[in-house]
Design goal:
- The protein is α+β, with helices and mostly antiparallel strands and 189 residues long.
- Helices cover 26% and strands 37% of the residues.
- It has one helix and twelve strands, in the order αββββββββββββ.
- Strands 1, 2, 4, 5, 6, 7, 9, 10, 11 and 12 form a ten-stranded mixed beta sheet that branches.
- Strand 10 and strand 11 form a beta hairpin.
- The longest helix is centred in the N-terminal third of the chain and has 49 residues.
């Protein structure tokens, strides 16, 4: 009868080993998920930092004077605005086709005019950007681009507000006044 008696002592060690392996597998899967989430979060943080640096460094600078051009032999109104822009040192190239220029006059009760890229032709709704009379769709480091657009006739002693808004980075707002006497080419102050 002794031979019919079961001995279960070996199964306890085997069950403990199975439970231990299950814990190790669950811990490995959990650590893989946690590490994956950490890598994803780190990547998103890195993208945010790079985006912030790109926006902070893509500053447009005014290079030179802002000119108001009159038409005809003895002009009394300014019909066109011209100025040159460049980039701050270390700034990345800017796509000028995405640039917006906002023009307004405080003495008029009309909404500001938003000008978009028009290639090499200037109008009252589109600006031209050229480098040595060739249309320039982008602005790279150490380049100067001539911006040109037409405005509704502006008489003497009037203030004009202009804001340059790139697609990435800070905008460049400035105000200029027409001179007391209008000529064919006028430096706006």
């Amino acid at each position: 009868m002794n031979s019919l008696k079961r001995n279960d002592e070996g199964f306890t060690g085997l069950e403990a080993a199975i439970v231990l392996i299950a814990f190790v597998v669950v811990a490995a899967v959990f650590s893989y998920v946690v590490l994956g989430a950490g890598f994803f979060t780190t990547q998103k943080a890195q993208e945010t930092v790079y985006s912030g640096v790109a926006q902070a460094t893509s500053n447009i600078q005014m290079t030179g004077q802002v000119y108001g051009l009159g038409s005809g032999p003895s002009p009394t109104l300014i019909n066109e605005i011209q100025f040159s822009i460049g980039l701050a040192p270390g700034s990345p190239t800017i796509d000028l086709t995405m640039l917006k220029i906002v023009y307004s006059r405080p003495d008029l009760e009309t909404a500001p005019i938003i000008l978009t890229y028009g290639g090499g032709t200037a109008s009252t709704t589109e600006f031209s950007s050229t480098i040595a009379t060739v249309a320039a769709p982008s602005l790279a480091a150490q380049q100067q681009v001539l911006i040109d657009f037409k405005v509704v006739g502006t008489p003497k002693n009037k203030i004009m507000n202009i804001e340059i808004r790139p697609s990435v980075g800070a905008s460049l707002p400035f105000s200029k006044s027409t001179p007391a006497s209008i000529a064919s080419t006028n430096v706006l102050y």
